Amino acid sequence: MTTNGNNTTATTSTAANTDHDAGTLATLRESASHAYESTRETAATAAARAGEGIEANPLAVLAGGIAVGAILGALLPKTESEQKVLGPLGKRLSETAIAAAAAAREAGKEQLTSAIPDKDAAKESLKKAFGNVVEAAKDGGKNAATGSTAA
């Protein structure tokens, strides 16, 4: 039983390792708990901000939802029955949209053309304005000359 001294040393070493492992495990648990709490708080803050954003600008959220729905609808394959039923309707809608865009473009061109003055009318207007300035200068000169000789 002389090996009892060696066994005591091995037992002490094993106990020290167990205590070290328990400390490490406690540290890991504490870190995981802290990470969980931090993540939970961040998620709650993000949810609150999202709610505030929705309340502040519901139309933007609606527009975003419509855009996402349109994208998903475009990505999904069309069924045969959809193509039979909606194909002619889609073609008519497309033709109508093209015609409306052309009409809007023409109306816009007309509005721009009417807003820009005619070159000849602009020249005539400038001639009149320049003539009025010249006449005013002549009259002013005559009045000044007449006023200076009368004084």
How would you characterize the overall build of this protein?
This protein has about 150 residues and is mostly helical. It has four helices and no strands. It has helices spanning about 5-55, 60-75, 80-115, 120-150.
The percent of residues in helical segments reads: over 70%
Rg, rounded, reads: 44 Å
Between the first and last Cα atoms, what is the distance in angstroms?
A: 147 Å
The ordered string of helix (H) and strand (E) elements is HHHH
Short description:
The chain is an all-alpha fold. It is built from 4 helices and no strands. The mean pLDDT is 76.
SSE layout and pairing:
Layout: H1 4-56, H2 58-75, H3 80-115, H4 119-150
Helix pairs in contact: 1-2
Output the keywords:
mainly alpha, 4 helices, 92% helix, 0% strand, elongated
